């Protein structure tokens, strides 16, 4: 026997949708305003090398990466995300990680809107400050005692961000894909080392990322 809902299905209204966008932009603004990191060159540039090499040439959506990933999907090859720094920042601040099309489309829209409200530099620094680097470094939306990237540099290498070598920075950037577990295993160490060396190998091909960080 068929059973029907007691109440008709209610689709989100445009008003509620716009209120949601406004609220999330406000959360992003709070997080960015609370960022206390400076432009420490090595770490942020290696994050770009590994996560979003066309960061300064798109507005929140990397169409080249999207088309490449879509082609891999339709040809049944291994594919990953096409997330940009803005998308990862939105996901981190809104704490929305569900694997649904609606969530991804909303994330893309908000990532694009971010480019009209915040500078590229501020978004990059904010993401690195609050991102999840491992079990010892939970996501901090804002108001933490120490930005996550500074905590990683201090705890793992005994250095400030400004003292990190290129190898140190490449390793920390690798934690964004392979977060540090409470008890690192040989397999995790191998994965991080492989990704770190990949970043160091790529770096000369993206020298422009190492010349300056646009404001």
From TrEMBL:
Molecular function (GO) terms for this protein are: peptidoglycan glycosyltransferase activity
What region holds the Glycosyl transferase family domain?
43-200
Q: In which pathway does it act?
A: Cell wall biogenesis; peptidoglycan biosynthesis
- Keyword Lipid metabolism assigned to the entry: answer is no
Cite the InterPro entries for this sequence: Glyco_trans_51, Glycosyltr_51/Transpeptidase, Lysozyme-like_dom_sf, PBP_transglycosylase
State the UniProt keywords alphabetically.
Answer: Transferase
Coiled-coil segments on the chain, per record: none
Work out whether the entry's keyword set contains Transferase.
yes
Task: Please identify the protein, giving its name as recorded.
Answer: Glycosyl transferase family 51 domain-containing protein
Give the organism the record lists.
Mesorhizobium denitrificans
What lineage is on file? Bacteria, Pseudomonadati, Pseudomonadota, Alphaproteobacteria, Hyphomicrobiales
């Amino acid at each position: 026997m068929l059973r029907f809902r007691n109440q008709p299905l209610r689709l989100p209204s445009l008003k509620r949708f716009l209120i949601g966008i406004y609220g999330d932009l406000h959360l992003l603004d709070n997080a960015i305003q609370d960022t206390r990191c400076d432009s420490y060159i090595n770490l942020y540039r290696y994050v770009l090398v590994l996560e979003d090499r066309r960061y300064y040439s798109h507005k929140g959506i990397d169409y080249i990466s999207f088309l490449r990933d879509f082609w891999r999907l339709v040809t049944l090859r291994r594919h990953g995300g096409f997330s940009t720094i803005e998308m990862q920042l939105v996901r981190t601040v809104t704490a929305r990680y569900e694997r649904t099309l609606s969530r991804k489309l909303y994330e893309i829209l908000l990532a694009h809107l971010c480019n009209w409200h915040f500078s590229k530099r501020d978004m990059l620094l904010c993401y690195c400050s609050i991102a999840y680097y491992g079990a010892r470094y939970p996501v901090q939306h804002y108001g933490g005692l120490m930005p996550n990237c500074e905590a990683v540099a201090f705890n793992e290498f005994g250095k400030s961000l400004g003292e990190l070598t290129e190898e140190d920075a490449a390793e920390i950037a690798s934690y964004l894909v392979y977060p540090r577990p409470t008890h690192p295993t040989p397999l995790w160490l191998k994965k991080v080392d492989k990704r770190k060396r990949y970043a160091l190998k790529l770096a000369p091909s993206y020298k422009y990322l190492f010349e300056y960080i646009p404001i």
